[in-house]
Specification:
mainly alpha; 7 helices; 0% strand
């Protein structure tokens, strides 16, 4: 169950537990975990994603700008956007910008690393 931004706390905890189990680290490039991302998105790290410092475009924001919020979109459809978006808002680690999409990538990484659905 998604509980809006409160989900972010649980996402960070789940990712940190995977780090504690030595399955990954906060500084592993996200592309090492999610190889199907566009190369432009692959260099950011979980630390940057959790801290809204990834520089990535926010897939949810992009969808809302073009479609409004009248049409629900699945997490899988949002995730697929990161396979094609070929530019960034800023170089990773250089600028803070609130980004729900970063947490989408973290949840997908948790699923891949743990073998369980979020």
């Amino acid at each position: 169950m998604r509980i809006a931004s409160t989900t972010k706390h649980f996402t960070c905890l789940a990712f940190l537990l995977l780090c504690e189990d030595a399955k990954t680290s906060l500084d592993t490039p996200i592309g090492d975990i999610l190889a199907d991302l566009h190369p432009a998105s692959r260099g950011t790290t979980p630390r940057m994603l959790a801290g809204h410092m990834s520089g990535l475009r926010d897939a949810k924001d992009l969808v809302m700008q073009f479609n409004g919020n009248r049409f629900p979109i699945s997490s899988e459809d949002l995730y697929s956007i990161y396979a094609t978006v070929d530019d960034l808002n800023a170089p990773p680690g250089t600028q803070w910008r609130y980004n729900n999409g970063g947490y989408l990538l973290l949840t997908k990484a948790i699923e891949r690393l743990s073998g369980q659905s979020f």
